[in-house]
Amino acid sequence: MASNTLLHLARNLHGNRRSHFMARSHHMAIQGLQSALLGIKVAQRGLDLVAQNTANVSTPGYTRKILPQHSLFIDNQFSGVWVGETSRNVDGALLKDYWKQVSNASYYGTRATYMSRIEDLNGSPDSEISIAAEISTLNDRFIKLSSVPDSTVLQNDTLRQAQTVAETLNRLSESFTKLRGDVQTAMETTVEGINATLTELADINKSIVTEIYAGHSTADLEDYRDQLVNTLSGQMEITSYKQGDGTLVVQTRDGQLLADTEARLLSFTPTSITTTSAYPATAAGIYVGDPSTNIDLCAGNPGGKLGALIEMRDTTLPQQNAQIDEIAHKMALRFDAQGLRLFSDSSGNIPADAPPAYVGFAGTITVNPAVVADSSLIQQGTGAGGLNAGSNAVINNILAYTFGTTADAAGTAHDPFRTSGLGPDGTLTTGMTGTATLVEYARTIISRHAQETANTQGKETQETTYSELLLKRLQDSSCVNLDEEVANMIELQRNYAAAARVFQSMDQIFEELLNTVR
Fold first, then answer.
1. Does position 31 have pLDDT exceeding 70, yes or no?
2. Are residues 283 and 380 in the same domain?
3. Residue 324, in any domain of the structure
4. 170: pLDDT confidence band, cut at 50, 70 and 90?
């Protein structure tokens, strides 16, 4: 009886030990399988990401995607790996620097384009068709006429050259005004582009907020949003910051809101441009949001392409018109002071010597209709009691004083060319010296602009080069590197293979367990 009891106890003890061993082995096997399965899943996601990165290596704006991973521990025991949603590796500060530089390069590039067009209209100081050359040629005609003052042929030659001078001024005035209108059209197109970009930015922000709330990756959406901001930065300078919900808030460089999850569009209603158009009185502003708020971008300089266009329309081109108005008016006055009203408006009058009375005069100046009707007046003068035929007194005075450095034999200085208080609203300045002969002033207009154009082109090259440097740094830090992707792929394949070997080991363990049970 006792022996039977001991045998029963021994069998129970052996059975309990085997059950405990089986349960423990089963638990360890399950843990091993779970870790191996997680390892395979992580490796597979990583390999998929490598494939995506590699496929988009040449896609503009695409940034390298990464898979965030963290080890998980419970009671100081490793329990697995946490794998997050796909994210990006982008240097935010460098990205903002790049956007600012894109704006700078666009500003100078746009400005250089229009400065070159003005230079083409002006010609070089020594060009035969520049206003300086035409005035100099008129001086030459008077020199020839002074030898034979009553020569009808030479009088007519002088008349024709005077008409050429007037026509050159007319052409320049018309061309500058037309170019100013072209600039305003470009402003309108740019505003439309900005509004389209802002609308899309707001939509992308909404999508990103939604995806973050749902726990999904927003990496690709953020890439696209960066491309939109890059486009916007070329159009105008912006500042930005990211909110906690993922929204990128975009503002003007002065801090006016442009877009978050809603777009605050620009408003621009252009008016026709004439020689008397002046901002803000008769040239339209560009408003942020509701025009009634009077947040007018034209009151400052918003940077980028739009900033350059505003500056061209409201300052640079009006200055060009003011300068040729100045030379047209002073030329008419200096001829008239020597007894020959050679230049006037179509009624034979010269505008008062008080701006803005002669704003636009370069566009309307003509040879005095009385002189056109009778070219002998070039020799006799247009004042009362003209000179006798053969006298060259008027002509000599014109050569000495109209084209000279003083107004009379006593050495009285000419009234200087105005350098400030110019334009339709009297706010323009030229930065030029006021004391000069007619030819000197005309040459200075051309040479000064040529130098400004060269400086702007140099600045464009400098800013563009720096922009390209920042882009290269940005690409090196955030874009796909094929060598890195290949190395990552090899490592992931090793991890995948290691996890697969765990499955093989688990298969052997289960086989041994089954044999033990049997």
1. no
2. yes
3. yes
4. very high
Find the domain containing 34 and state its range: 21-89
Do 370 and 451 share a domain, yes or no?
yes
Summarised one tens digit per residue, pLDDT across range 300-352 is 999 999 999 999 999 999 999 999 999 999 999 999 999 999 999 999 999 99
- The whole-angstrom separation of Cα 303 and Cα 106 is 9
33 by DSSP, 3-state: which? helix
Closest-CA residue to 368 (of 338, 348, 351): 348
Mean pLDDT of the chain: 86
Which of residues 63, 89, 115 is at a domain's end? Answer: 89
Is the pLDDT reported for residue 76 higher than 80?
no
For residue 269, is it within any domain? yes
DSSP string, 271-312: ----TT--TTTTS--EEESSGGG--BGGGS---HHHHHHHHI
CA 167 → CA 124, 128, 367, 414, distances in Å? 18, 14, 9, 25
Cβ-based burial of 454 (10 A; exposed 0-12, middle 13-18, buried ≥19):
middle
**Is the pLDDT at 171 greater than 70, yes or no?**
yes
Instruction: Tell whether 80 and 99 lie within a shared domain.
Output: no
Residues 114 and 204 in one domain: yes
245 and 259 both lie in a single domain: yes
Q: Is residue 164 part of a domain?
A: yes
Q: Are residue 223 and residue 279 in the same domain, yes or no?
A: yes
Identity (one letter) of the amino acid at 171? R
Predicted confidence (pLDDT) per residue in 350-383, tens digit: 999 998 999 999 999 999 999 999 999 999 999 8
Those residues whose C-beta lies under 8 Å from the C-beta of residue 15, and which sit 6 or more positions away, are none
Asked whether the beta carbons of 346 and 339 are under 8 A apart, the reply is no
Whole-model pTM: value is 0.85
Pairing outcome for strands 69-74 and 77-83: antiparallel
Residue type, 241: Y
Q: How far apart are CA 235 and CA 102, in angstroms?
A: 9
Confidence of residue 61 (pLDDT cuts 50, 70, 90): confident
Q: Is residue 11 part of a domain?
A: no
Residues 110 and 60 in one domain: no
Number of domains in the chain: 2
Specify whether 144 is located in the same domain as 248: yes
Q: Which carries the bigger pLDDT value, residue 477 or residue 273?
A: 273
Range 474-487 average pLDDT = 70
Contacts of 62 (CB under 8 A, 6+ apart): 56, 223, 479, 480
In whole angstroms, give the CA distance from residue 264 to residue 266.
7
∠ CA(125), CA(127), CA(133), 5° rounding?
Answer: 70
